[in-house]
Design a protein that fits this description.
This protein has about 325 residues and is of the alpha+beta class. The chain has 9 helices and 17 strands.
Length: about 325
């Protein structure tokens, strides 16, 4: 089999930290698979290396994603990303085939104690790519049209609100999914994938909730917050959030966004529990201690897909 060095020019990315950038149109790629590794869209700074070819990007743990140019990639530390630029033009399907092979067959070789480096990855063997590999990229066909947005040019005023002041917080009703009969109701747990859905079950009507947030007490991503516009049941490893006063869907989604930004405070080794959660605060646009829901709506309206997403979340 050919090596990565046979097919690609492996290069270490170079870019300032994400928070140092202004909003823009160039994808900023970081570690992990969430959103295909894209942390956001920025205006590149002087000194950033901008990649202008369809490429495979490897994280410090050899997580492989395919990136559409132009993009910049995290490279301001010792675990900067590695960009594999093809020596000859390869299609997205061909690159996806190689990325899938790396993720399923090679990624296990790397960890915190043995991170990926250019010298380590260039010797890895990958399959010879076919002209038409069995890989399909149909996701774009299911997305609504992208509309250009002009983000507000001002900084809104944010204030801290205790979760316990905004919501009545209660644990879910079930401990073991295996104790429940199969059915049509999604059972929410502390996982991040599939919006937290762990199973589909049958439960009594008084144990079914809808249009509420759930917050994970534990798991790999403690404090993971999900909004559920559909009927659902919940395990006791998540908190169910019932608004003390009516809140718009846009406000609930914004709370979800801001809570997920706080997940760094907890981990599998530092779990959350109800008393901690009640003391957790969330930053929201506000005027004199009152959530500015009009401004929240404006901020979400400046994002790319909100006009397509909002009708799907409505009561």
């Amino acid at each position: 089999m050919p090596t990565i060095d046979d097919l690609f020019n492996p290069q270490t990315a170079k870019a300032s930290g994400f928070a140092q950038h202004e909003p823009g149109l160039v994808a900023y790629v970081t570690n992990g698979f969430r959103d295909n590794g894209v942390l956001g869209f920025v205006k590149p700074k002087a000194g950033d290396r901008i990649f202008d070819r369809l490429s495979v990007v490897l994280s410090a743990f050899c997580e492989a994603t395919v990136q559409i140019p132009p993009f910049v990639a995290r490279g301001n530390g010792g675990s900067g990303l590695i960009v594999l630029e093809p020596k000859t033009a390869l299609t997205a399907a061909q690159l996806g085939y190689i990325a899938a092979y790396i993720n399923t067959t090679l990624k296990w070789r790397f960890s915190w104690s043995r991170q990926a480096s250019v010298e380590r990855v260039r010797r890895l063997e990958v399959p010879k790519v076919e002209d038409n590999p069995p890989v399909s990229f149909a996701v774009r066909d299911f997305l609504p049209p992208m509309t250009a947005q002009n983000p507000p040019a001002w900084t809104p005023n944010f204030e801290a609100f205790l979760l316990d002041d905004l919501f009545s917080l209660s644990p879910g009703d079930y401990h073991n999914a295996s104790d429940l009969a199969a059915g049509d109701i999604p059972l929410i747990s502390c996982g991040d994938c599939d919006n937290g859905i762990a199973a589909f079950v049958t439960v009594p009507a008084d144990k079914v909730y809808q249009h509420k947030l759930t917050i994970a007490f534990n798991g790999m991503n403690t404090l993971t917050t999900k909004f559920h516009p559909y009927a659902f049941a919940a395990k006791d490893d998540v908190a169910i959030c019932t608004a003390r006063k009516p809140l718009r869907v846009s406000t609930l989604v914004f709370v979800q966004l801001m809570m997920n930004r706080e997940r760094w405070r907890y981990s599998y080794y530092r779990k959350c529990f109800m008393d901690k959660l009640k003391r957790q605060s969330v930053q929201l646009p506000a005027k004199a201690g009152v959530i500015d829901e009009d401004l929240v709506e404006t901020l979400l309206g400046a994002t790319t897909y909100w006009t397509a997403l909002k009708p799907r979340l409505a009561a």
